[in-house]
Amino acid sequence: MHISAKADYATRALLELARVPDRPLTCESIASSQGIPFRFLKSVVGELRKAGLVRSQRGCEGGYWLGGRAEEITLLDVARAVDGELITLRGEPLEGLDYPGAATGLPALYRRIEADAAALLGGVTLAALLPPEAGTGIDAGTGAAQAPRSAA
Predict the structure, then answer these.
(1) Alpha carbon of 74 to those of 23, 37, 50, 99, 141: distances in Å?
(2) Distance between CA atoms of 82 and 11, rounded to whole angstroms?
């Protein structure tokens, strides 16, 4: 299975936006903090905007914000926004794939891999990936809610 650079960069950019939801971030600051090529990030953010995963504002006070709540945006949303199909075979969707003879069962296996990957990615939100210090109360390792820390 191949995770595209676009999907990786898009997810990392959205995590940066989710980390500071109270103010907009510029593409320059996201690219710098994540070590992502600026020009590539600019086009990826454009695709995220078209999909409604980010919103933007022009001007000196402008930048990008998440287009929804980090608790509601899944990695499946991100992958589909920038890549379309989750898994393809030679660039074609698995939908109508059919093989003869001994390979008859192979397309069903490929479709099951796609369904399992979609279920996994659809179950992980941006909030679940944020480090606990980001104030989400979510453990990035497990995706589970953490107990509040008491002030000593």
Answers:
(1) 21, 24, 16, 33, 16
(2) 10
137 class by beta-carbon count within 10 Å (0-12 exposed, 13-18 middle, 19+ buried): middle
Question: Do the beta carbons of residue 66 and residue 21 sit within 8 Å?
Answer: yes
CB 40, CB 5: distance < 8 Å: yes
pLDDT (tens digit, 0 to 9) for every residue of the chain, 152 residues total? 788 999 999 999 999 999 999 899 999 999 999 999 999 999 999 999 999 999 998 877 789 999 999 999 999 999 999 999 899 898 889 999 999 999 999 999 999 999 999 999 999 999 999 998 755 444 444 444 444 333 33
Beta pairing partners, 89: 92
Q: How far apart are the first and last CA of the chain?
A: 47
